[in-house]
Amino acid sequence: MSDHAGDPATETFVAHRNLLFTVAYEILGSAADTEDVLQETWLRWVKVDPGQVRDPRAYLIRITTRQSLNRLRAMQRRKEAYVGPWLPEPLRTAPDTAENVELAESLSMAMMLVLETLSPTERAVFVLREAFDVSYDEIAAAVDKSSAAVRQIAHRARRHVEARRPRKVVSPSESRAALEAFQRAVDTSDLRGLLDVLAPDVVVLSDGGGVKQAAARPIVGPEKAIRFFIGSVRKVGGTLTTEPTVINGSPALLFRVDGEIDGVAALRIEDALVTGVYYVRNPEKLSRLESETALTLQ
């Protein structure tokens, strides 16, 4: 892309890049695959005659959506062979993302897992319509369906998601307070502190990808969750440190062992208590966290 720096095509693409990244990521749940989709979108975009494009934003979203759908269908086979629970690749987001409740929810691990239950076309239609308010006609062009069909798909997907949508999150200030309490309890192996911050129905999902140790199935309840986290801390072969961050628009803890990233836990917080922990340890899904720039939406 640098070879084309300064030309109108590049400037237009760069201006919409964060938007296109978020569209692709919400469809795919993989930042690495999203980067590949953006590269494919760019290669197609620079071959387009700008004079034939009435709305560059809509045109770029259309290309990105089509490429994302192709990639998502290919990813389905990888997920079927995945070892243990599959979680989306954690995405570092700017701290102010959490202030935007709607954006934070659409990017959250909880919502991304709900989107996993949709078909590829349903997911694309839902993301474009609900998260980015793309018109039905534009979505129809992106997914190669009629506008009437897209309306039906959107209605079906919305009904499906609403039945599984996570409950409303608490305010950012309450989230930060709960994260700080969770971090203190983990850092000091404070069993009482952990019990105080975990909800009675807390669920922990962990993704090691068959490479790092993780729970083979969801952990439900505070007592089991505490045993899991305290046991994990005690098995660390080096110096464990934690640092707060924002992952997928949610408060999170980054775990390091001897300075190297070992995992990240994104928290879902309701009524000042942790109701969900999404703990990713698969090294392939953590490789971008050290170098990536936090995503900021315009």
Features of this protein?
six-stranded mixed sheet, 51% helix
3D architecture notes:
The protein is an alpha+beta fold. It is built from twelve helices and six strands. The chain has helices at residues 8-28, 31-45, 56-80, 101-107, 109-115, 120-131, 136-143, 147-164, 172-187, 191-197, 222-234, 283-286, and strands spanning 198-207, 219-220, 240-247, 250-257, 260-270, 273-280. It has a six-stranded mixed beta sheet. A hairpin with a 2-residue loop joins β5 (260-270) and β6 (273-280). α3 packs across α7 (136-143) and α9 packs antiparallel against α10. The mean pLDDT is 90.
Proportion of helical residues: 40-55%
Low-confidence stretches: none
Query: From the alpha-carbon coordinates, what is the Rg to the nearest angstrom?
Result: 20 Å
Number of helices: 12
The averaged pLDDT comes out at: 90
Helix/strand order, N-terminal first: HHHHHHHHHHEEHEEEEH
Largest sheet: 6 strands, mixed
Approximate shape: globular
